[in-house]
Amino acid sequence: FYISGHPLDRFREELSRLTTCSIQDLSHEQDRSTVLVAGVVESMKIKRTKKGDKMAVVSLEDLSGSIEVIIFPDLFSYTSSLLKSDEPLLVNGSLEKTETSLKIIAKELTTLDAAREKILRALELPLNEEMVKDELLQDIKALAFTYPGECQLRFRIKSSNGDSYVVVAHNRYRVMPAPELISNLETLLGTQVRKLTS
């Protein structure tokens, strides 16, 4: 239960591109099919295999429901800190479906922030020509340096005659498209930032 909204709320726009379906819709998928689901860890039980290696059984929750995810020792050994971090996660795994239960055998785990950075190619900032002043550009530059990453920054500049043209920022201004960066840019510009995936 989340008082200030579900942690997945800030990823709503990207979820359809990052996942194969919601947890609720897993019941329509075939047994042993490969699925990609997003969610937050609701609870986690650590177990030991016969060899004594640690593994985890996790309850993963999204906006539609929850599902059991099995994380075997090989994967658990390098993702245990992710599982304890409260970060929204993307799980790539194999669906195990019986008449009475559904669970996922995890093959890969990553944060949704990392997955989002992989699919977002550029952030496009809409500007009117008269807005292009040193002070604004310095503010954008400062934000870019605060959130360094691999995502390109572009400016779509609208001229006084109504035409528009695109200027691509230098590679040193590539950013991590974190929600906080996008929110700060939108506050600065007073307009919505476009997220481009190609």
The CATH homology group name of the largest domain: Nucleic acid-binding proteins
Percent of residues in beta strands: 35-45%
Looking across the biggest beta sheet, what order are the strands in? 1-2-3-5-4
Model regions low in confidence, pLDDT < 50 over at least 5 residues: none
CATH architecture of the largest domain: Beta Barrel
> Can you summarize the main beta sheet?
5 strands, mixed, barrel
Residue share in helices?
Answer: 25-40%
Mean pLDDT, nearest integer? 91
Output the structural class.
alpha+beta
Which fold does the CATH topology of the largest domain refer to?
A: OB fold (Dihydrolipoamide Acetyltransferase, E2P)
Q: Topology as H/E string?
A: HEEEHEEHEHEEHE
**Radius of gyration over C-alpha positions, nearest whole angstrom:** 21 Å
The count of strands amounts to: 9
CATH class of the largest domain: Mainly Beta
Q: How many individual helices? A: 5
| Count of structural domains | 2
Short description:
By secondary structure, the chain is an alpha+beta fold. It is built from five helices and nine strands, in the order αβββαββαβαββαβ. It has helices at residues 12-18, 73-83, 112-119, 134-146, 179-189; strands at residues 34-48, 54-61, 66-71, 89-97, 102-111, 122-128, 148-158, 164-168, 194-196.
